[in-house]
């Protein structure tokens, strides 16, 4: 069997690992634009200089050689012909396959701001090449601006805050991490970044990129009328799935590639996994999808039944936070409980005894049980006690043979 995997990030690498485990004699080819295997989740450590390229890797030494993978590096897939079962590369190579997994991920989205897409010294933060450019340019830049205060944008700020340069954050929303955090939790980070010297603009958009005579970014016109200096602009306003090479024969929607819970697309022998779908753009979801797709490629039937992907654990400026499930009540039928202390903030959203979301900041020791309760919809059975006092012990029963069983919904025991 000739398996081909396109993409060397979370989904792609975990798929080739699974393919080799399940089919020890198969031919496995990995194709990637990157020439290194690295975690994009920690690229900010490379920017700040606390990790080198080798230390960004999430695989063991000798992974490619030990798994007998034919790795085509530095190549983009420019086209695919499902009928002929062939891939066409930017290097003008043609790669045949018996089964292929498309895990090409996503790229930075550049919003339609005048001059944004043509100005020099404007970069996203999705790849090692992006991080290398930021690291290089930050040594000479005087005024660095990060556009977008989501997870990628805050990663960039975290990587730059110690570089001794002017760092500014511009966010269209009312606060940083507006999807993950409420106003109280976001305020903790905003105050910490302010103390670290980061200037912050919220409910503000970049209206125009002003270039100098060499077409380099020089200033930014903001929506509030201000003009700020900028000689390095990092764009973190969202991503778009890398599906440009896919023709009409493979189904996509406005988000990205369409594939089912087994990783199958509408074309035989073509599978998908990870950010190429344009959905659930988090590392654990990509890992699961890569493993499941690879299993089905080999003929070991597996299905993604765990669609719980709304979990973000983050640490910025040594402040730990977790956002879980739905961190905001959808309507007034939900109850919100808050435990707000000087160094610990906890918020739980629940209805009819079931927790639907939570935000925890400071001490994350309580988050393991919260994750399971939200993920599995476990009723609390707290008998009048505060939700912040619930422990795992509340969900275990002792059976007659002195074994423990876990009680889930409605008191049903899980063996």
- Compute the average pLDDT: 90
From the 3D coordinates, which CATH architecture of the largest domain would you assign? 3-Layer(bba) Sandwich
Low-confidence stretches: 408-415
Radius of gyration: 24 Å
Reported by name, the CATH topology of the largest domain is FAD/NAD(P)-binding domain
- In DSSP terms, counting alpha (H) and pi (I) runs of 4 or more, how many helices? 8
The CATH class assignment of the largest domain is Alpha Beta
Oligomer: single chain
Can you tell me the CATH superfamily of the largest domain? FAD/NAD(P)-binding domain
Describe the largest sheet: 5 strands, parallel
Question: Overview of this structure, please?
Answer:
The protein is an alpha/beta fold and about 425 residues long. It has 3 domains: about 1-105 and about 240-300, FAD/NAD(P)-binding domain; about 120-235, 3-Layer(bba) Sandwich (FAD/NAD(P)-binding domain); about 325-415, no CATH class. The chain has 8 helices and 26 strands. The chain has helices spanning about 10-20, 45-50, 65, 130-135, 150-160, 185-195, 285-300, 365-375, and strands at about 1-5, 25-30, 70, 75-80, 85-90, 95, 100, 105-110, 120-125, 145, 165-170, 200, 205-210, 215-220, 225-230, 230-235, 240, 270, 310-315, 320-325, 335-340, 345-350, 355-360, 395-400, 405, 415. The strands form 7 sheets. It has a 5-stranded parallel β-sheet with strand order 3-2-1-7-18. Strands 9-16-10-11-12 form a 5-stranded parallel β-sheet, covered by helices on one side. A 5-stranded antiparallel β-sheet has the order 19-20-23-22-21, sandwiched between helices. Helix 1 runs parallel beside helix 7. The protein is globular and about 60 Å long. Residues about 410-415 have low confidence and may be disordered.
């Amino acid at each position: 069997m000739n398996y081909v995997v396109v993409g060397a990030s979370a989904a792609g690498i975990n798929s080739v690992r699974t393919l080799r485990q399940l089919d020890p004699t198969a031919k496995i080819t990995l194709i990637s634009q990157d020439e290194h295997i690295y975690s994009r989740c920690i690229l900010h450590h490379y920017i700040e200089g606390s990790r080198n390229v080798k230390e960004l890797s999430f695989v063991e030494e000798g992974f490619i050689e030990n798994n007998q993978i034919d790795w085509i590096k530095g190549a983009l897939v420019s086209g695919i012909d499902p009928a002929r079962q062939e891939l066409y590369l930017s290097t003008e190579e043609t790669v045949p396959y018996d089964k292929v997994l498309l895990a090409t991920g996503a790229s930075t989205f550049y919003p339609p701001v005048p001059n944004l897409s043509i100005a020099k010294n404007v970069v996203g933060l999705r790849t090692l090449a992006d991080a290398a450019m930021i690291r290089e340019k930050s040594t000479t830049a005087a005024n660095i601006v990060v556009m977008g205060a989501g997870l990628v944008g805050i990663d960039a700020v975290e990587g730059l805050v110690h570089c001794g340069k002017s760092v500014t954050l511009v966010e269209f929303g009312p606060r940083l991490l507006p999807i993950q955090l409420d106003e109280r939790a976001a305020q903790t980070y905003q105050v910490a970044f302010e103390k670290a010297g980061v200037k912050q603009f919220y409910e503000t958009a970049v209206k125009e990129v002003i270039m100098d005579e060499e077409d380099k970014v020089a200033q930014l016109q903001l929506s509030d009328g201000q003009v700020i200096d900028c000689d390095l602009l990092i764009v973190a306003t969202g991503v778009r799935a890398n599906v440009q090479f896919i023709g009409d024969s493979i189904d996509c929607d406005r988000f990205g590639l369409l594939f089912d819970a087994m990783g199958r697309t509408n074309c035989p022998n073509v599978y998908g996994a990870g950010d190429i779908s344009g959905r659930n753009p988090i590392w654990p979801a990509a890992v699961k999808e890569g493993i499941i797709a690879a299993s089905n490629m080999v003929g070991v039937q597996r299905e993604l039944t765990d669609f719980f992907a709304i979990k973000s654990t983050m640490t910025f400026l040594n402040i730990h936070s977790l956002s879980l499930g739905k961190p905001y009540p959808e309507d007034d039928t939900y109850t919100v409980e808050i435990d707000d202390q000087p160094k610990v903030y906890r918020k739980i959203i629940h209805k009819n005894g079931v927790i639907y979301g939570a935000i925890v900041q400071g001490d994350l020791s309580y988050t393991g049980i919260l994750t399971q309760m939200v993920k599995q919809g476990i009723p609390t059975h707290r008998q009048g006690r505060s939700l912040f006092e619930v422990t795992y012990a509340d969900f275990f029963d002792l059976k007659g043979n002195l074994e423990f069983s876990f009680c889930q919904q409605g008191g049903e025991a899980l063996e």
